[in-house]
Amino acid sequence: MDSGQDDRTGWGLRPARSEDMEPIAELRAVVLRDDLERLGRYDEERVRQRLRDGFSPERTTIVLAGGEAVGCFTLRPEPDGLWLEHFYLDPRQQGRGLGSAVLRTVLAGADREGTDVRLNVLQGSAARRLYERHGFTADSEDAVDVFMVRAPGAGDGVTLTALTALTAHAGRAG
To answer: What percent of the chain has pLDDT over 90?
Structure first.
């Protein structure tokens, strides 16, 4: 995963450090609050403690925008693929394409490795639409979570459609 700021797009990535744990725990509480409250599951301390209990700086990446930490994600390798966890963006950064840009970067790496990516998203969360746009499909669900999976190369519909059209056109021209 590239690190540092991308001056062309205004965002970048850097490896997490142990001192990032508390700011990430706070970000998690802010980002998940509305969905957890809607599900009747919000607990001000538990939402932070669950992140602290599983925080792994060596698997976590910080998302930067304008040189500031504005989000994060964790990639955890498992036998059934990579698990994308703790993908949070500051609400002020949401809806601007940053989540899609970060997700495309993560998925490109998984595609190169031929690896499935799995995640879970809270029932009713708007984030589910982001994941579906990038090729994730529901694998299973319970009262709280939807478990999703994306096979390598899935969600590249625009690219594949354009490539198919270009190939068809080239075939007619020859």
So the answer is: 79
| Full DSSP string of the chain | ---EEETTTTEEEEE--GGGHHHHHHHHHHHHHHHHHHTT---HHHHHHHHHHH--GGGEEEEEETTEEEEEEEEEEETTEEEEEEEEE-GGGTTTTHHHHHHHHHHHHHHHHT--EEEEEETT-THHHHHHHTT-EEEEE-SSEEEEEE-TTTT-HHHHHHHHHHHHHHHHH-
Using one digit for the tens of pLDDT, what is the confidence trace for 112-139?
Answer: 999 999 999 999 999 999 999 999 999 9
Non-local (6+) Cβ contacts of 138 within 8 A are 146, 147, 148
Q: What is the pTM of this model?
A: 0.83
End-to-end CA distance of the chain: 40
